[in-house]
Q: What sequence folds into this?
């Protein structure tokens, strides 16, 4: 499977070189825009069907994942798959929940947890990770497999 073009809107390059696209689902893809091979959708309710494989995490707007161990497992899978697939992470607007998840992926990729929000804000969206509890979630997120968040 082909990976993202680094110049595609919303694509974040992690320090390892993995590319992940963050997106707001409120904004439809442009005709002919590349589609993911795998997506992680962070929404309060089940997302609509798409033609690619996806995983849904129940994650209400401005909040944290309802099931944190399941979210950690899904984020770990997305990080693993990003090594060779086009992985997309998306919520409604593409900033709060998406930014939080991208920051967690950065931690999994080796960015220190206390620097991950800054990394995502510098390389993805300066307004990513919107709430104090989302920032705290990232600070407490561990790059160690099986660790609690």
A:
């Amino acid at each position: 499977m082909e990976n993202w073009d680094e110049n595609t809107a919303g694509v974040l390059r992690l320090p390892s070189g993995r590319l992940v696209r963050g997106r707001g689902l409120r904004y439809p893809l442009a005709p002919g825009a590349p589609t993911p091979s795998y997506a992680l959708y962070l929404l309060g309710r089940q997302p609509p069907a798409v033609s690619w494989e996806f995983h849904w995490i129940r994650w209400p707007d401005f909040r944290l994942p309802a099931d944190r161990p399941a979210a950690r497992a899904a984020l770990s899978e997305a990080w693993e798959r990003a090594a060779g697939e086009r992985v997309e992470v998306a919520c409604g607007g593409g900033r709060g929940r998406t930014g939080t998840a991208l920051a967690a992926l950065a931690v999994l990729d080796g960015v220190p947890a206390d620097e991950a929000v800054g990394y995502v804000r510098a390389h993805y969206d300066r307004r990513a990770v919107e709430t104090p509890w989302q920032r705290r979630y990232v600070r407490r997120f561990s790059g160690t497999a099986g660790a609690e968040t």
